[in-house]
Design brief:
homodimer, 20 strands
Chain lengths: 511, 511
């Protein structure tokens, strides 16, 4: 390439929007989080299964809310046999494919979990990523509301295992059948209204983010946001909008009562425009299922402070057919400008009885729950619930004489063979640069051997952590005395013991 | 959807070729492997960093050997601003982008590691996957052969940490500069010959898989494989082919000698057609660097049984500029038809001094090593070095009376709260189906409470593992006595203690 006389234009090193690199503290935090979640999910009897990051586009289906995005929010490309392949946008659609493909071999109900990155071609924006991690559990082959209840309990247990105290999160439950019943009541039933129904559901989904006046716009003629982008509305009439508003008031009627009484209470108190109309039966089925879920939750001791029925919960994905859940963080946080931050949902899920049946003749009821690991991690970092202190780096053996690099390597090997993280300085910098390097790596100590030390059979140890502490000393004599403990000579054969000593002195453990 | 009278055609549940699902034992094995690799890499002083699965296509560059594949073997799609984005085909190209983008903030040399899935749009075939996991370490900003030597040592340590005994693997080292010198000698230097040079290198790369006669075809007019596919050759003349063949004989000259002598030996014994010709200087530089690497390896005690110089090592990726390494498994394995299986390379890497400089004005030398986790795992599974026994499943609490599901849930919660993996049977099957389910889940025991037991305040415990053992008993009386220990009643309040007892009896620990 050096043959060409003109200097080639250099490429710009940059990432596409909505993607991010992750450093040591973020990676360590994710590892701890996924280990914790895994423990809880396994205690609940779920076993791991993983599918690849890509699937045939038709097998995934298009259930995302981003209908105005390229390929409806999914990254897709054509295979060499012309078939379309897409990156998974969640872990549920691929699981449905997996279960359908391996149906006869799997135990039923089939209870599994998985963690992995998913990809959405979302409109980029602050905190909106196009690649993020989810951790899912699913029970496929059970129509029982107890399976839905279990998802809520597990969501709650997971939050607490992750260090979020009771009261600082809530698992909210609703049932799509109730919402679908409302749709029927206002004349939005039938396959021909599927699109508008979804628009209404997604408007309701925003009820915890927007004022009602904004929701009204989304239910009516549409809404223009601050950036000028226009979201088409559901074109409901004022009377239809009023019925939707009333249906959201249900939540005040949901209270935890003794078994049975709970049912009758809600069922008895349906607002009167929902009685003796189309949709009433579906609403009542949804309410009955919510009652069954609440019975199990109560029996297991998950009272209202952990799991709560909330009629505004919708979930944006199109494939839900029954119970829907959402985990919300109630932690109080401020952004860098001191404004209160709403974290919103850090996990959710629901019943998707139709998803596996897309591939099979028999009905296959299923329910699942997904933790947004990336989103939860971002939230916990914001409230300082995640350790972001830099970890100790390796012991650095400096190089004074390139000819003697094999000798220095021997010292490194000795330390490594004894389980100590260690490395040879491999750059071309002089002593100052090597010390700066060790500092940047947060090295607990540095090993030094010039020709003078070599001839005397000694090595110098520099205790970097002690050095950092000494910087705070103001008294000159005291500082001098303290510095003597920072850099000192030991015999070559004492190297290993002395490095161990330094590590013990500063409680260095590597995570 | 039920409105439509005609039955819709069901989708076929299937994965695109070259992709696979992974079950519990494979996932557990990967987790153990990556944990082990991580420990070794961290002991060497590398710190984690992760980049996303996709990058701008131009930032990744096209360095794969699959030039006859769509997009040269890379999965690509256009972003909504028309820019092309690709899935990463390795972990090195994205790291180069990361280092270039964050150059000033990073310690130099920058030593990092990462694990992740990479994607190649390869021609599908047995054992060739389009998604697989790699685990990489890289030292960026060091031109020192000691950095290359370290990669070889770490590769060796990693293999042994993974349970592959010394002698059952070998790390082979070569230097692209030697090969590039040979190219110059036979008149294939210069940017205008880059394509043919690569074809020659890739032919040499196959020297451990094919007979020399096949390599000759690849160096000459081309080769047709058994499937009828034709690979274009490098169109070398017979004299050029002979020179390449001779250059591969170097390997017999490489021997481990005392420092210094090693250098002179190889440098003194260059076959005479490589002396006083163009390319000699480059070859000698490559040989000198190999000598420097061998000095460090020897000092650290990595004698020939772990790391070996081998002039046939090339590596298929285009971006290597100096030392190249490859880890080969020497384990003896047979496939299902009893034929010997060659695993080939399970890891490799090399020096890529030009990759970061694509983005920056200054030269940024770099070297790295990548373990093919998926490929190594497949190899270890074939020689039974990976535990594939099913793990114990959860304790299953059966359901006799749907009305009492809340009671059964209480038992499950009690077990879970005490750290025992447990679940409620959530299907709709009768007793027989529930027992079959527990069997399929490999449950250590099952908890049963019908109305009769309930009224007497007891529960039945079925010890499934004992039951499985009893199946081997042939004596009728003995069997009867043994079966009494398989299913028995305990008081409700003894449930937890008794389940613990069963778990202890069978040494059940969950991984």
């Amino acid at each position: 390439m050096a043959d060409k006389p003109k200097k080639p234009q250099k490429l710009k090193a940059r990432l596409p929007r909505g993607l991010e690199d992750r450093g040591p503290t973020a990676i360590a935090a994710t590892r701890r989080m996924t280990e914790t979640i895994r423990e809880v999910f396994e205690r609940y009897g779920f076993e791991p299964v993983e599918t690849p990051a890509m699937e045939y586009t038709d097998a995934l289906g298009k259930f995302l809310p981003d209908q105005d995005r390229p390929n409806e929010g999914v990254f897709s490309f054509q295979d060499d046999d012309e078939q379309w392949i897409s990156l998974r946008y969640d872990l549920t659609a691929p699981l449905a494919r997996y279960v359908a493909e391996n149906f006869d071999a799997l135990p039923k109900p089939y209870r599994s979990y998985r963690a992995g990155y998913v990809f959405r071609n979302e409109k980029p924006g602050p905190g909106r990523f196009r690649q993020f991690m989810q951790f899912d559990a699913d029970t496929v082959g059970s129509a029982s509301p107890a399976a839905d209840a279990e998802m809520c309990m597990m969501a709650s247990d997971t939050m607490e295992a992750l260090g979020i105290p009771r009261g600082s999160y809530v698992v909210k439950v609703n049932n799509r059948k109730v919402l679908d019943g409302v749709m029927d009541t206002i004349g939005l039933g039938g396959i021909e209204n599927a699109g508008r129904r979804l628009t209404v559901l997604r408007a309701i989904d925003k009820a915890d983010k927007f004022e009602w006046i904004e929701i009204e716009k989304l239910l009516g003629s549409g809404r223009r946001d601050e950036s000028g982008d226009f979201t088409k509305g559901a074109e409901l009439s004022p009377a239809q909008i009023e019925a939707v508003r009333q249906s959201l008031q249900f939540k005040i009627e949901f209270e935890w009562m003794d078994d049975g009484g709970w049912h009758e209470r809600i069922q008895g108190e349906l607002p009167k425009q929902f009685i003796n109309v189309e949709g009433e039966a579906l609403m009542r089925t949804g309410l009955f299922e919510l009652g069954e879920i609440s019975k199990v939750l109560k029996a297991a001791g998950y009272e209202e402070d952990r799991v709560r029925i909330d009629s505004s919960v919708v979930r944006g994905l199109e494939y839900y057919t029954g119970a829907v859940f959402e985990v919300e963080l109630l932690l109080d946080a401020k952004d860098e400008k001191g404004r209160s931050v709403r974290f919103g949902s850090v996990g959710g899920g629901g019943r998707y009885d139709g998803l596996v049946s897309r591939f099979r003749e028999e009905p296959v009821p299923a329910t699942g729950f997904s933790i947004g690991v990336s989103r939860l991690q971002a939230a916990l970092r914001m409230v300082s619930r995640i350790d972001t202190a830099p970890h100790p780096g390796p012991v650095v053996v400096t190089v004074f004489d390139q000819e003697r690099i094999a000798d220095y390597q021997r010292m490194v090997t000795l330390l490594r063979d004894n389980g100590i993280r260690a490395e040879l300085y491999l750059g071309s910098g002089k002593f100052g640069a090597q010390m700066k390097y060790a500092d940047k790596r947060n090295s607990p100590c540095v090993v030094i051997q010039g020709s003078d030390e070599k001839s005397r059979g000694i090595v110098l140890i520099k205790d970097c952590f002690q050095g950092a502490k000494n910087a705070a000393i103001t008294d000159r004599e005291e500082y001098k005395a303290a510095q003597a403990k920072v850099q000192y000579a030991v015999l070559e054969e004492e190297l290993l013991d002395e490095v161990r000593e330094v590590l013990t002195r500063h409680d260095v453990t590597w995570g």
